[in-house]
From TrEMBL:
Name recorded for this polypeptide: 18199_t:CDS:1
Originating species: Dentiscutata erythropus
Length: 69
């Protein structure tokens, strides 16, 4: 009987460890997903800023040429 009780305790402990591991794994997956989403947003924002900067310089060039005439 005592042996059976110890086996049950060990089985419960293993199940708790499996659950903890699964929770941690799910949290890591969620964080990786959020990191990827944030990196994509950052990349898109950087691309947009680059386009704005190029447009600004295109508008600025004729004004600079005028100043040097």
């Amino acid at each position: 009987e005592e042996l059976r009780q110890r086996q049950i305790k060990k089985a419960k402990k293993r199940e708790q460890e499996r659950r903890k591991y699964k929770i941690v794994r799910l949290q890591v997956e969620w964080l990786e997903k959020k990191k990827h989403e944030l990196n994509e947003r950052l990349r898109a924002t950087a691309k947009h800023m680059n386009h704005l900067e190029h447009a600004y310089h295109k508008e600025e060039i004729p004004l600079l040429e005028k100043d040097y005439e």
